[in-house]
Amino acid sequence: MFDNARPALIAAGVAVQLLLTSCGGGGGSAGTAELPAREALIARAKALELNTPYVPPPGDPLEHATSGYAKAMCSAVFITHLDPDVAAESVGYFTAPYDQRKLVGKPVVDRAKQEVRITIPNGPTLVARYHGSQGCITLPAGATDVYFKPVAVTSALPDPANLPWPMGDVLSTAPATGYHPGLVAQAVTAAFDVPLAYTAAFVITHKGRIIGERYMTGVTAATPLESWSMGKSVTATMMGVLIRQGVYQLDQPAPIPEWQTQGDPRQQIRIADILHMSSGLRIKAPDDPDFDPNGTYPDHKYFYTGRVDAFNYAATRPQQWPPNTVGRYRNTDPVLANYLIRLAVEKRGEQYLSFPQRQIFDKIGIRTMVMETDPYGNFLTQGYDFMSARDWARLGNLYLQDGVWNGERILPEGFVSFVSTVAPAWAADRRPIYGGFFWLNGTGALAVPTTAYYMLGAGGQLVLIVPSHDLVVVRLGFDKGEPFFATTVQRALRLLLQGVEASR
Questions:
Q1: Percent above pLDDT 70 for the chain
Q2: Helical axes 485-499 vs 181-191, angle rounded to 10°
Q3: CA 449, CA 468: separation in Å to the nearest integer?
């Protein structure tokens, strides 16, 4: 089950759901529910499919993988500050599988130019360059720089060393109630028990208070770590803020400029459909039930590695199914959500690249987030995002508190319920596992109640929200450890639930 290709194929979601189940899930009294057979999912989707063509992403797959490799190395070195040799062996597997890395030259880390160069034998040299707040970007073929002006995004918050948690990092020493310290400590230890899991950070909050925390050697509470698809939930948060501000509504047709030609069927796609991963747009992704790993390069990865205008690529995909009929985990939808965010923010004359820091992060104490972009300055927070475990815990607590922070409503009323309720198109497939850019524990795959929901990223990145117990659990780790992620997390969660009293 755990072959060398496995980490590259688990984007998040269905594959991880199955992985968790195989390792013993079931936190609810009903145990672990089974997902429908792959054949049934394929048959239903085929019956609803529209007669539109599929055109695979252009370019050479090895060059795409090398683009991902250069970018992953650049981010690891210049954002996370990993040793290059450690990074080459342990991170960035999803866009740069290990077997592909062996086919190209050794990454050259140029600290003066803040870039990483990798040469393909008898082929081009791929260059990924660090651009400060926008992280690392692999340059398009023939380009000497990106096609936008990078923006320095800084937090307006004071030094966290002088502020109490959660707006700062000073932890309370007052006695806490409602949990058993010994069992919580055992849960933290369990998260690190298997060295091959490469757990980098583990943080537990109860009723908003940190009650357990540990880091890998060399990683601190402020280290931004690769987080992958947990960035989709950040995208949902940005959209929620705009909805709260009256810019968009969930049920309105998504105003994508490329869809406004008269008669274009994509005008029927609502913002809610996009957040539900049910726009119905045609691409290929590793989580598709009918995905062929030996087929053409998947568009899902191409959004990371193509070095193109990601917004335009997503917006020009044809319909595969009518909207809100079939749910599929594909990067098309979070990319389009980010497109809508950029259109709205710039329309009112604001700086797009600093919008998340101003409107969300500064309000809830987050200082470490790096949201990477494509060469055109478009956020790629479908998975190119880096943040510390404590900052992920802060974001999780925003949702635990129904989108309210220090008395200020940041997310609109009902939005947390929206993202944590099964999407209709996924329910139609009898898969109660996806909401609105959040995964759901509807099958009991995780060892917590089925009312829990979570952010999930490749390599075993997890922010788990357990409303019944007022818990937020953050686990971050290196991609190399993904085959052992489920084992360690499930054991930790079982111990944690034994040690924390249900409060709701």
A1: 93
A2: 180
A3: 8
**Residue 33's pLDDT band (cuts 50, 70, 90):** confident
148 is written with which tokens? 């936008």
Quote the CA–CA distance of 322 and 256 in Å, as a whole number: 17
The tens digit of pLDDT for each residue in 115-174 reads: 999 999 999 999 999 999 999 999 999 999 999 999 999 999 999 999 999 999 999 998
- What is the distance between the terminal CA atoms of the chain, rounded to a whole angstrom? 38
Cα(319)–Cα(266) distance, integer angstroms:
7
Could you tell me which residues come within 8 angstroms of residue 408 by beta carbon, excluding any fewer than 6 positions away? 363
Give dist(CA 238, CA 158) in Å, integer. Answer: 23
Q: Supply φ then ψ for residue 495, to 5 degrees.
A: -65, -40
Give residues with Cβ within 8 angstroms of 61, minimum separation 6.
297
Average confidence (pLDDT) over 289-310 = 97
In this predicted structure, what is the pLDDT of residue 501? 85
Considering Cα of 265, then 266, then 267, then 268, what sign does the dihedral take? Answer: positive
Is the confidence at residue 8, as pLDDT, over 70?
Answer: no
Q: Can you give the three-state secondary structure of 288-310, one letter per residue?
A: CCCCCCCCCCCHHHHHHHCCCCH
Q: In degrees, to the nearest 5, what angle opens at C-alpha 325 toward C-alphas 321 and 329? A: 80
DSSP state for residue 270 in the 8-state scheme: B
Q: What single letter denotes the amino acid at residue 73?
A: M
Structure tokens at 310: 């990601």
Does 17 score more than 60 pLDDT? no
Pairing between strand 225-226 and 385-387?
antiparallel
C-alpha distances (whole Å) from 102 to each of 97, 116, 120 are 9, 16, 10
CA distance 26 to 239: 32
Percentages helix, strand, coil for the chain (3-state, rounded to 5) are: 40, 15, 50
The domain limits of the chain are: 6-53+221-499, 61-138
19 phi, psi to nearest 5 deg: -60, -45
Q: What is the DSSP string of 83-95?
A: -HHHHHHHS-TTT
Summarize the confidence of residues 209-221 as an average pLDDT. 97
Determine contact, residues 93/111, Cβ cutoff 8 Å: no
Residue 217 DSSP one-character state: T
**Residue 447 CA neighbour count, 13 Å, CB half:** 20
Residue 236 has pLDDT above 60, yes or no: yes
Q: What is the CATH number of domain 6-53+221-499?
A: 3.40.710.10
**Buried b vs exposed e over 164-173: b needs ≥16 C-beta within 10 Å?**
ebbbbbeeee
pLDDT of 11 strictly over 90: no
